[in-house]
């Protein structure tokens, strides 16, 4: 805080005293050591990256930025591959943003940067966080599941049926029936491995098989058909 005391004299040596201030002076930027940006999404990769679909609006918020003399406002920008997707814009005192006016490219990593300014007009360093935009479903390779039987034990495997990105945490639903549309042999959800081993009394040679592969983003693909037990 700075105050100024000013004394003014006239020709008769009479004086008047006035005081200006106090004024807040700060040369230090807002403190961002605890600053953190979070995205509003329910999906994350296995490495902890948040994931969103290209058609979804981009929502994020931040916290942990502080200034001893008070934050005046915030601004943000969005980058992709070092190129500006959305230039710096102010949010005033809002600490959350919903962005609907940009087109997100599939299979790209976007980075959000946020800065704060204080009442002295000093800007902080930028904090940042990244999000993966991904809307593709798992793809089929053209190969079929395999089923082997040892006694009453069935071993169903489909490790080369889907082409997947492991970081998107694919899970599998398996439905097996003695006839098309039946589920009388087995039905199991949320399998993490590409294999399902179980005991069953079914003695037929053909199994009608449906296997669905789903990413953590909700996109999925399915293979269905008759598989001969070996």
Q: SSE string, helix = H, strand = E? A: EEEEEEEEEEEEEEEEEEEE
In which range does the helix fraction lie?
A: under 10%
- Total domain units: 2
- Secondary structure tally, helices: 0
Structural class: mainly beta
Can you describe this structure?
By secondary structure, this protein is mainly beta. It has two domains: 36-133, Immunoglobulin-like, CATH 2.60.40.10; 139-228, Immunoglobulin-like, CATH 2.60.40. Helices cover 0% and strands 54% of the residues. It has no helices and 20 strands. The strands form six sheets. It has a six-stranded mixed sheet, with no helix packed on it. Strand 13 and strand 14 (153-157) form a beta hairpin.
Write the layout of secondary structure elements.
Blueprint: E1 2-9, E2 15-23, E3 36-39, E4 43-44, E5 50-52, E6 58-63, E7 71-80, E8 83-92, E9 96-99, E10 108-118, E11 127-133, E12 139-140, E13 146-150, E14 153-157, E15 162-163, E16 171-177, E17 186-191, E18 195-199, E19 206-214, E20 220-228
Parallel strand pairs: 5-11
Antiparallel strand pairs: 1-2, 3-6, 4-5, 6-9, 7-8, 7-10, 10-11, 12-15, 13-14, 14-18, 16-17, 16-19, 19-20
Index terms:
2 domains; 6-stranded mixed beta sheet; 230 residues; Immunoglobulin-like; single chain; mainly beta
